[in-house]
Amino acid sequence: MSDGHYNRAILPPGGYQSALKVGKAMERQACEKALQETLDECIQDNPELKTRILETFSNKIHSKQ
Predict the structure, then answer these.
(1) Per-residue pLDDT tens for 5-64?
(2) Can you tell me the distance from the alpha carbon of 30 to that of 44, in angstroms, rounded to the nearest whole number?
(3) Chain center to CA of 25
(4) Which domain holds residue 41?
(5) 3-state SS of 5-30?
(6) CA pair distance 47, 59, nearest whole angstrom
(7) Is residue 53 part of a domain?
(8) Distance between CA 53 and CA 5 in Å, rounded?
(9) In-domain check, residue 20
């Protein structure tokens, strides 16, 4: 009968947390890129506003880690 540690023993150490962090970073980058492209399409005549929106968005998603 298993003592509950059998499944953990066959997994590589630390792989799950590392992959989770990589996945979150990739999602943040994808969101930032999508927002950049949207702003480029919608707000073409005001670069200061685009920059301010991107900075605010970036600060908010990086502080949620």
Answers:
(1) 566 566 666 667 778 888 888 998 999 999 999 999 998 899 999 999 999 998 998 886
(2) 21
(3) 3
(4) 27-65
(5) CHHHHHCCCCHHHHHHHHHHHHHHHH
(6) 18
(7) yes
(8) 48
(9) no
Q: 45 is written with which tokens?
A: 């005549």
Say what the alpha-carbon torsion angle 17, 20, 21, 27 is, to the nearest 10 degrees: 180
Residue in the structure block whose two tokens are 């999508």: 34
Count of structural domains within the chain: 1
Report yes or no on 60 lying in a domain.
Answer: yes
Q: Predicted confidence band at 2 (pLDDT cuts at 50, 70, 90)?
A: low
Q: Flag whether 31 is in a domain.
A: yes
Residues 6+ apart with CB under 8 A from 56: none
